[in-house]
Amino acid sequence: MYMKTAGIHHVTAIVGDPQENVDFYAGVLGQRLVKKTVNFDDPGTYHLYFGNEGGEPGTIMTFFPWPGAYPGRTGSGQVGVTSFVVPDGALAFWEDRLKKFNVSFEKTSRFGEEYLQFIDPHGLNLEIVARKDGKDSAWSFGGVPADKAIKGFGGATLFSAKPDKTAELLENVMGLEKIGEEGDYVRFQSTADIGNVIDIKRSPEAPGMMGTGTVHHIAWRASDYDDHEQWKHHVAQSGYGVTDVIDRQYFNAIYFREEGNILFEIATDPPGFTRDESFEEMGKNLLLPPWLEPHRQQIEENLLPAQARVLKEDK
């Protein structure tokens, strides 16, 4: 069986204070807070989702905010850098915006593209790249106009404990195409026009340690529920231990750990984030799955306030 994922569905990371998290990704980066719910496996903490106006696959960055948790260490067995893509010609806007909010950044280039690299308040490595491909976001917030807004993911850089094995997986199991090598990086591309570029760092880093400021997992797209079932069989037949299908309310999920020790998820595009609230109301209220609804009062009492708000520029 030969299969191809369209690309990244979402990336999930661990951070600290939830309001600081919302202030950065909504207030500074201008993304939409599309869903405010809880970690279904640990309802004492939020699960916050940010993306374009509809939280479409390929745009969704999600977070488990654990205030006071120990800091992690980015290293092998993790997504090392998460890339966001903006419209062609918008990079100068983002240089200026990061300066206005006192976010330090470095300019770098890779595979003929210019990147702005920076770190979020809790230690996550991020970068912004401009490309023509992919539809523009229709979301405008906090001084970020839609024609400059983040479209979604540009891709990710994987820090693998076994880079060659991870490269084989991307090509032979996930169906990405190897499109180039440059210095310490090998580049792969999927079929989508967003969330489609994956770089593997060839020289292994020291082992990563999970904690705030690190990526928990990267999720890949399955087009529908039938496709998802085929992926489950495909991954198992390829020799990887894969979980049963788990209902995450907004998508179904399966998980497996690849040989480079990175946790992979495959998630369905449907049903999306309007299954339990309207498009207009997305992200405003705390949404709970049916089995947690009876515990709403206790859950709300344990959560710190977190809401999207317009920030004042530092400069």
TrEMBL record:
Source taxon at top rank: Bacteria
Segment forming the signal sequence: none
Keyword annotations from UniProtKB, A to Z: Dioxygenase, Oxidoreductase
PROSITE patterns (alphabetical): VOC
InterPro entries with a match to the protein in the record: Extradiol_RC_dioxygenase, Glyas_Bleomycin-R_OHBP_Dase, Glyas_Fos-R_dOase_dom, VOC_core
GO molecular function: dioxygenase activity
Domain VOC: 7-131, 152-269
UniProt xrefs under PANTHER family: RING-CLEAVING DIOXYGENASE MHQE-RELATED
Protein name, per record: Ring-cleaving dioxygenase
Species this chain originates from: Fictibacillus iocasae
